[in-house]
C-alpha cells in the first residue's frame, strides 16, 4: 500500500516511450489496473491540457460496441481512475459531459522533458534522455484494433517530426558554438532513436541482445559449453523473423559482468537482454537462462535446463527452443520455434570449432591466428562435412591475411576462397562464405563478381552484420557511397560496439562531404580501440590541421598491439618510432608541401624495399596525400585482402585526394582493376557521373 500524502504541489511522471508507466513524485511506480484504464490515461498524457472528446476515446478503445455501452464503459473507467489517483493528485482530471483532459500542471512525461531540454539548450540532458529512450516506440505494446493503430501511427509520426526538428536545431546551435564534444554526443544519441537509417521498411522487430553465457567454475569444459550455448542461441534466434539480434562481436566486447543492464542495452541498442550461465558437476550440466527488460533490469522470464556433457547438442536445442517459445509469450509475438540447425554430430569437432572461432574473433596477438587455423582444421579433419566449420576456417584465413604481418597474403586469400567454396557446396545457405569469396574476387580484379557474391550473401543473411558491412564496403570501394551508407549504418545498428564499422562510416561520411559527422564516427572508432588515421584525415579536412597532426601521431601508441609493422620488417621503437610517426603525421595532415614531399619520397623508397610493395602502410597514406602514381603502382599491380580497404578512401572530394581521380592515368587504372566493369553493371560512382560514357567511347 502506498502512503497517501499531500502531493498537490508535486507532479506525477509518466513514461510514454515503450511500456506506459506512471510514477509518483517519490519515484514509486503506481500500477494502473485495467488495460483500457492505462490506455485512457496514456492517451490523455500525450497532450496534457488538451481535451479529448469522449466519443473519440470510445471509438479508439471500445470500437465495435454500441455507443451507449461504450460511453458507459468509459464512464466507469474514468471513475476508477479518479478513485485511484485522486489521493495523489486531486486536480488531475478536467472532465465535462463531452470531453476529458489531464491538468497540464499535474503531470510530466519523458516526451515533454525531452522536448523541453532540446528547446531550452540543455544539450547534455537531452543526450542522456535520448539514450534512455533508445529506439522504443511511443506508447509501445498497446493494441486496440485498426482505428487505434491508425491514430497511434499518426501521433508517433507527429512526435518524431517534432523531435527531429528540435534535434536539428540543437545540433545547429552546438555547431555554431563550436562545441564538438556535445555535438558528437547528441548526434550519436539521436542516431539510436532516428529510424531513417534502416535498410528495410519491413515490420518492426524486437531487438534482443544475447550476452555470453557465464561458466560457473574454471574448467575448460564448462567454458567451451558456455561459448557453444551463446553461439548457438545467437544463430538460432537470428533465424526468427520477428527478432533482430545484436552481433556476436558487440555482445562479446560490450558484455562486462559488472555493467548494469541499462548500460549494456544502450551499448548494444537493444530492448531486451538474454543472459545465461552453465554449471557442471561431473557429467551433469545445468544451464540457466533469463530474459531481462533493458530499461528496468527486471527479469521477465527464466528457464532452467539440465543435460550431460555427452549430449550437449540436446541441451543446446532445448534451450534454443525454450527461449524462442518463451520470448514469444513474454513479448506477445507469434514466433515459429526454429528447428535444429545444420551443424556437426561430433562433440569433439564442435568443441574445436568453438575454440577456433573464439580465437578468430580475437584476431590480434602473437600466434593467435595460426592457432585458430590449427583448431579449425582439426575440427574439419574429424567432420569434413561441417559446412559452418569451413566458413569459420575461411574467416580465419581472411583474418590472417588482414590482421597479421604475413608474407603470403595471396596464398591466404586463395585458401580462404577454397574453404568458402567448400562451405557453399555443403550448404548453399552459407551467406557469409559467399561474402568472403567476394574478397578473393577483388584480388583477381573482379569487383563485379565480388559485388554479385555480396548481394547474394545479403539475400541469404540480411541480419549478419559481417555480411551487411561487406556489401556496404564493396559499394564503398567502387565509389557508390550513397548506396553504401544505409548498409554501413545497418551494420552498426546490428553490431554497434565494433570499431571497424565506424571506420567505414567515417570514410563514407567524409566521402559525402559530411565532415562533422565523419569526425564523430572517427572518434567513436578511436574510442573502440582502432587507429586514429581516418579521424585525423577528417579533422584535417575540417581545417584543424594542428589537431589532425596530433591525432595521426597517436597511432604510434597502437604499434604491435592493434596494428603491426609491415610484413618482413622489425618493429620500430623509441626515437625511431616517434620520428617516423611525426614525419607521417605532418605529411598527411599538416597541409605543408614540404612535409608532403618528404613523406611521399619515403613511401616511394618503402615501395621499392619492403617485402610487400603493396603494404597498407604505403597505400593508405599515398591516397591521403594524393600520390597518384604510387597508388597505381600498388593497387594497380595487386589488390590483397589487407590493402583492398584503401580503395574506399579514393572517393573523398577533398584535396589532395581528388588529385588521384584527376590524374590522366586514373581511368586506365580503373579499367585495369575492374572498376569500369563494376560501374557498367552497378552504376557510376557518386563523384564521376561521366565515367560510364567515357568507358564506352573506345567501343564507338
Distance N to C terminus? 87 Å
Helix content: 55-70%
Biggest sheet, in brief? 6 strands, mixed
Instruction: Write down the overall mean pLDDT.
Output: 84
The top-level CATH class of the largest domain is Alpha Beta
Give the CATH H-level superfamily of the largest domain: TolB, N-terminal domain
Radius of gyration: 29 Å
Shape: globular
Strand content: 5-15%
Give the CATH architecture of the largest domain.
3-Layer(aba) Sandwich
Number of domains: 5
The stretches of 5 or more residues where confidence is low (pLDDT under 50) are: 1-9, 195-203, 695-700
Number of strands: 12
Summarize the structure in words.
This protein folds into 5 domains: 12-109, Winged helix-like DNA-binding domain superfamily/Winged helix DNA-binding domain (Arc Repressor Mutant, subunit A); 113-197, no CATH class; 206-341, Rossmann fold, CATH 3.40.50.10070; 464-530, Alpha Horseshoe (Serine Threonine Protein Phosphatase 5, Tetratricopeptide repeat), CATH 1.25.40.10; 542-663, no CATH class. Helix content is 57%, strand content 9%. The chain is built from 31 helices and 12 strands. Strand 11 (284-293) and strand 12 form a beta hairpin. The relative contact order is 0.05.
Give a concise summary.
By secondary structure, the chain is of the alpha/beta class.
What order do the helices and strands come in, and which of them pair?
Blueprint: E1 12-15, E2 21-23, H1 35-46, E3 52-53, H2 54-61, H3 67-85, E4 93-95, E5 99-102, E6 107-109, H4 110-119, H5 123-133, H6 146-177, H7 180-193, E7 206-210, E8 214-216, H8 220-237, E9 243-245, H9 248-254, H10 261-268, E10 272-281, E11 284-293, E12 299-308, H11 312-330, H12 347-362, H13 368-382, H14 387-403, H15 409-426, H16 431-443, H17 447-460, H18 465-477, H19 481-494, H20 499-511, H21 515-527, H22 533-541, H23 545-553, H24 574-589, H25 593-609, H26 616-624, H27 628-634, H28 658-662, H29 666-672, H30 675-682, H31 691-696
Parallel strand pairs: 1-6, 7-9, 7-10, 8-10
Antiparallel strand pairs: 1-2, 3-5, 4-5, 10-11, 11-12
Helix pairs in contact: 1-3, 2-3, 4-5, 4-6, 5-7, 6-7, 7-21, 8-11, 8-12, 12-13, 12-14, 13-14, 14-15, 15-16, 16-17, 16-18, 17-18, 18-19, 19-20, 20-21, 21-22, 22-23, 23-24, 24-25, 26-27
